[in-house]
């Protein structure tokens, strides 16, 4: 169909992402499965990351790569990933401000807090 063709048009969808974060949700499955496309979309409009496919929002390496572009992307990572202390420790590489974007349970995790203090103690 014509609509499906339009939703698979890389240039058209990317231009739509510039205007509206929901545009990524309308992208064709092939585009949404393309890691480089989703990363570029997140660079252009970080809020669109909430519409990235669940497998990408659950991939710690991919989420951290995207969060290097804009740390607010961490808010749109999969809940299960955000809750993992190992992920929180890795996210601290981006700066201690990431704790504000992750679940508050991390404030009760000694290892996470110790790492945050180590990184922020200048």
TrEMBL record:
Top-rank taxon, per record: Eukaryota
A Pfam family this chain is assigned to: DUF4116
DUF4116 domain ranges (all copies): 3-32, 34-82
Protein name: DUF4116 domain-containing protein
Organism: Alexandrium catenella (Red tide dinoflagellate)
């Amino acid at each position: 169909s014509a609509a499906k063709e339009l939703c698979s048009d890389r240039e058209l969808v990317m231009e739509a992402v510039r205007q509206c974060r929901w545009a990524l949700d309308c992208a064709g499955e092939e585009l949404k499965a393309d890691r480089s496309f989703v990363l570029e979309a997140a660079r252009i409009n970080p809020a669109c990351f909430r519409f990235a496919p669940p497998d990408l929002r659950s991939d710690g390496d991919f989420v951290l790569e995207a969060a290097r572009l804009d740390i607010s992307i961490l808010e749109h990572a999969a809940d299960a990933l955000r809750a993992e202390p190992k992920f929180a420790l890795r996210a601290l590489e981006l700066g201690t401000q990431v704790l504000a974007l992750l679940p508050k349970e991390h404030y009760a995790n000694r290892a996470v807090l110790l790492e945050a203090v180590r990184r922020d103690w200048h």
